[in-house]
Queue: 3 jobs
Job 1
Amino acid sequence: MFAPIFDVRVYVSCAAMSCSNELVKKLQNLKSFRIHTGNINNFAELKLKRFKNSAEELSACLDLQFKKLDHTIEVGPKGTVLLSKCLQDVNYDRDDLKISLKVFLTGFEFAQITSAIDATLDQLKTGNIEQIIVSFPECDGDSDTADEKWMEGVVGLWKKIEELVNSGKVVSAGVADLQLNHLEKLYNAADVKPCVNHFNIEGCCVVPPELQAYAREHDIQLLTHNDPSPFPFKEVFAKVCEHRCDVQPCGFSPVWAARYTVWVQRRSIMASKGYILQFDAQK
């Protein structure tokens, strides 16, 4: 299982030496903390640049934000470091908005999903999310046994996601990068059917025709994306710190990452977009 390690001292000391000691001390006394980019649409440097994938975008965003880190940075009551306080440029009525959240998991732990949802709800000051997309961890091996075990993890986790939909906390749920055989197995096992398959076409240019046909037949929306799978947590942070410090990574493990987008419905306007990342202290 992918379990990269990250030392908060590396990140902060590389970015803003003037305020690093105070922030590091606060974070290292915690068992876990979150980094929230805030609305990255506020940064013209990011909006005007085309990125190869979302990991490159996140890396550039964090690099930019930590370079501007100053003494006013605070650690919130839930261990959240909000890097940009402006979450949305314009205020809209909640009924006019659609919130979509994609969660990148490092394990088949339902707590990672609920933690990501709760963090997003808390930051956006709302009670529910219109759509969640789950990016499952990689299959650990190429054998039929490994594939079967991986699929059991997917279905088991999905059954718990269904509870979120039934409770109204999440309106609809989808998946990321499931091939036809996996999507079919999940669909047949699910009571709440996946409404979306977020599919990466890098390397194949188009979604396989048989997957397209299955999606049409079962009313599953196929959306393409440029998110790497698995999400390269460790590489993102290594990129930010490259050539800027010489501290060995240790202490905290990235647990999950989530990206939310807030759309103004019927107007195709993205009101807000941001990343939230969870870190837990090593046991």
Job 2
Amino acid sequence: MPIHRKGQKDDPGNYRPVSLTSVPGKVMEQIILSTIAQCMNDTQVIRPSQQGFMRGRSCLTNLISFYDKVTRLVDEGKAVDVVYLDFSKAFDTVSHSILLEKLDAHGLMGVLSAGLKTGWRAGPRECW
């Protein structure tokens, strides 16, 4: 069922699809999440400067970190350039097959990804 996000209601790009996930699907999501999180912690894939989607870090901690760094550089007399990018719609167009291939290439999913490609993916297309 499409949910209206923002803007004009007659523009299909202003809606996002929503599908109901079964309890086994939710359990599988938690298993996948913990597997990926553990692997990323073990291999230190995510840098300490990563703020988004990290427990205990947010837009506010990102802003404080950014402000602190810019202030320090300006105090040292160094030039500072800032570029703002809006990726709000970028993830609506991510190819899930490419995403799964990249997870495999980095060794994050292993046998679990093979199960996802064959079994779970056979479910509702809205999820993928």
Job 3
Amino acid sequence: MTGTKPAVTFERLSMRGVTRQYAKAGAPALAELDLDLERGEFVALLGPSGCGKSTALACLAGLQPLTSGSIWLDDTRIDTLPTEKRGFGMVFQNYALFPHMSVQRNVEFGLSMRGVPKAQRQEGALRALRLVQLHEHAAKLPSQLSGGQQQRVAIARALAIEPEIVLMDEPLSNLDAALRIEMRTEIKRLYQERGLTVLYVTHDQEEALSLATRLVVLRKGVLEQTGTPQEVYTNPVSAYVAGFMGYRNLFPAQVEATGHGDAVGVRAHGTVIHGSHRSGTTLKPGAGVTVAIRPEDFVVGSGATGNSVKAVAEVVEYHGRELSVRARTGDDTVLHLKTDQPVAAGAVLDLGVVPERVLVYAESSASGTGAGEAPHG
């Protein structure tokens, strides 16, 4: 590692029509995916298990061949190159450390595979360990470190080769909640201080929002939406994306009437709910739609305004400053809400939510929402 930041040798990584088919029959894991990664970006691939995000990373890394399409680093095609020639650093969820090697030797491994002389690779490994604040543990074995420390060793190993791009495949999924938060901060620090370019796979929307400069949501191997975290969070293009962006309440309704702009009234729970139409198609009265509402957007009790819904609290969980409540309406629809108001199980709740916080999607956009999609790899 020759400086505080990696040398700039590329401007854009491009995937063009990348398709990965595991079997002749059935849907592909990736279907003609077009994706660009600009130098200095932190892009998070987001989606449920089986949506194709890990497959995309494996294709980039050279761990899986393409069925069709191509991958380019500026004007150089790289999908025909072996893994070690692509210049990527890789971090996996299982750390993939050698248990019989010291921390330092683990970090040296990539440099050794590239034929770097011993003195230089030792120096490079120690420099990478200082970046992740583990240089004092260089002589230890991985088993003598905590899970968070082992993941930092894996990150140091990826950085030691001075990669063009760092690929991370759910690197925090095996850590407990407190360590995940700590490691998120550590990864963000390294990204900012080193000027890294990162492609990061996760199914955790909070993790993606906190780390990434751009989100890419995949659905059954197809790009569903891309944009800044704020864009995707505030304006999900489909009920599927809304489900990943915290709209836990997704339920069917029928169009009652349309208004000016994207205003729409729908009938659900025996009443009319007013919201904003987000599907980009013309809705007609009687059409089936999906309504999406965040739990935190419900207001309980006398402060409730806008749309009014009655529900009975079934389960109340204490989360410190707020309560997480599962409630059920008269037509047997389950609602999830968060509130700082006192609520007891069995209580009848008057709920309100302003129309601006109610998103309405064409019925077809609701199919396959959530994590229950058929796996593709």
